[in-house]
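Sanity check

After download, print the first record. It should look like this:
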Amino acid sequence: MVYQKNVNCFIEVMKNQSDLFTETDWIELAEIADQILEDDDEELWQKISDWLKLHPDVKTAHKTYLKPTTSLASLDTHLGPGGSKPEESSDEPSSDPTLLKKLKNEIHRHKPDPSKQSP
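Expected C-alpha coordinates:
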Protein backbone atom coordinates (compact mmCIF):
# COMPACT_ATOMS: atom_id res chain seq x y z
CA MET A 1 0.00 0.00 0.00
CA VAL A 2 2.88 2.37 0.80
CA TYR A 3 4.42 1.69 -2.60
CA GLN A 4 1.12 2.42 -4.32
CA LYS A 5 0.75 5.73 -2.51
CA ASN A 6 4.30 6.76 -3.41
CA VAL A 7 3.88 5.85 -7.08
CA ASN A 8 0.48 7.55 -7.29
CA CYS A 9 1.95 10.73 -5.79
CA PHE A 10 4.78 10.59 -8.33
CA ILE A 11 2.23 10.29 -11.14
CA GLU A 12 0.44 13.35 -9.74
CA VAL A 13 3.70 15.31 -9.85
CA MET A 14 4.14 14.22 -13.47
CA LYS A 15 0.61 15.38 -14.31
CA ASN A 16 0.57 18.64 -12.40
CA GLN A 17 4.20 19.78 -12.47
CA SER A 18 5.48 18.46 -15.78
CA ASP A 19 7.63 21.58 -16.15
CA LEU A 20 9.99 20.06 -13.55
CA PHE A 21 10.92 17.33 -16.04
CA THR A 22 13.29 17.75 -18.98
CA GLU A 23 13.05 15.84 -22.25
CA THR A 24 15.89 13.65 -21.01
CA ASP A 25 13.95 12.95 -17.80
CA TRP A 26 10.95 11.70 -19.78
CA ILE A 27 13.18 9.43 -21.85
CA GLU A 28 14.89 8.06 -18.71
CA LEU A 29 11.53 7.43 -17.04
CA ALA A 30 10.24 5.63 -20.13
CA GLU A 31 13.31 3.38 -20.06
CA ILE A 32 12.79 2.68 -16.35
CA ALA A 33 9.12 1.81 -16.88
CA ASP A 34 10.01 -0.47 -19.80
CA GLN A 35 12.48 -2.40 -17.61
CA ILE A 36 9.69 -3.51 -15.28
CA LEU A 37 8.13 -6.60 -16.80
CA GLU A 38 5.24 -7.16 -14.42
CA ASP A 39 3.06 -5.15 -12.11
CA ASP A 40 5.38 -5.16 -9.11
CA ASP A 41 4.57 -2.00 -7.15
CA GLU A 42 7.58 -2.44 -4.87
CA GLU A 43 10.04 -2.74 -7.76
CA LEU A 44 8.36 0.17 -9.55
CA TRP A 45 8.66 2.39 -6.49
CA GLN A 46 12.30 1.34 -5.92
CA LYS A 47 13.23 2.39 -9.48
CA ILE A 48 11.38 5.71 -9.13
CA SER A 49 12.96 6.30 -5.72
CA ASP A 50 16.44 5.74 -7.14
CA TRP A 51 15.63 8.17 -9.98
CA LEU A 52 14.34 10.78 -7.52
CA LYS A 53 17.66 10.75 -5.65
CA LEU A 54 19.24 12.28 -8.76
CA HIS A 55 16.44 14.85 -9.26
CA PRO A 56 16.03 16.91 -6.06
CA ASP A 57 13.44 19.35 -7.47
CA VAL A 58 11.11 16.53 -8.45
CA LYS A 59 11.79 14.77 -5.14
CA THR A 60 10.77 17.90 -3.22
CA ALA A 61 7.55 18.16 -5.23
CA HIS A 62 6.87 14.47 -4.59
CA LYS A 63 7.25 14.99 -0.84
CA THR A 64 4.62 17.74 -0.88
CA TYR A 65 2.15 15.37 -2.54
CA LEU A 66 2.84 12.77 0.14
CA LYS A 67 1.80 15.07 2.98
CA PRO A 68 -1.56 14.00 4.41
CA THR A 69 -4.39 16.29 3.37
CA THR A 70 -7.31 14.18 4.55
CA SER A 71 -9.46 15.76 7.22
CA LEU A 72 -11.69 13.82 9.58
CA ALA A 73 -14.74 15.27 7.84
CA SER A 74 -13.77 13.69 4.54
CA LEU A 75 -13.21 10.34 6.23
CA ASP A 76 -16.88 10.29 7.25
CA THR A 77 -18.00 10.23 3.62
CA HIS A 78 -16.60 6.72 3.24
CA LEU A 79 -18.28 5.27 6.31
CA GLY A 80 -21.48 3.25 6.32
CA PRO A 81 -24.32 3.31 8.86
CA GLY A 82 -23.09 3.62 12.41
CA GLY A 83 -19.63 4.58 11.20
CA SER A 84 -18.95 1.12 9.76
CA LYS A 85 -16.64 0.71 6.82
CA PRO A 86 -18.21 -0.63 3.63
CA GLU A 87 -17.09 -4.10 2.59
CA GLU A 88 -14.67 -4.27 -0.28
CA SER A 89 -15.51 -6.85 -2.91
CA SER A 90 -12.47 -8.71 -4.15
CA ASP A 91 -14.52 -11.09 -6.33
CA GLU A 92 -14.63 -8.76 -9.32
CA PRO A 93 -11.48 -7.94 -11.27
CA SER A 94 -10.53 -4.30 -11.06
CA SER A 95 -11.05 -2.29 -14.23
CA ASP A 96 -8.59 0.33 -13.01
CA PRO A 97 -5.29 0.41 -14.86
CA THR A 98 -2.31 -0.88 -12.91
CA LEU A 99 0.21 1.56 -11.48
CA LEU A 100 2.73 0.57 -14.12
CA LYS A 101 0.17 1.21 -16.87
CA LYS A 102 -0.78 4.59 -15.35
CA LEU A 103 2.89 5.55 -15.12
CA LYS A 104 3.58 4.53 -18.72
CA ASN A 105 0.51 6.43 -19.94
CA GLU A 106 1.63 9.61 -18.20
CA ILE A 107 5.19 9.28 -19.50
CA HIS A 108 3.86 8.71 -23.02
CA ARG A 109 1.87 11.97 -22.80
CA HIS A 110 5.05 13.96 -22.16
CA LYS A 111 7.88 12.00 -23.74
CA PRO A 112 9.30 13.70 -26.84
CA ASP A 113 8.53 11.97 -30.13
CA PRO A 114 11.87 10.93 -31.68
CA SER A 115 10.43 11.26 -35.20
CA LYS A 116 9.77 14.96 -34.61
CA GLN A 117 13.29 15.70 -33.35
CA SER A 118 15.60 17.59 -35.66
CA PRO A 119 18.79 15.71 -36.70
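If your output differs, re-run the checksum step. Summary of this record's structure: The first helix runs from residue 2 to 16.
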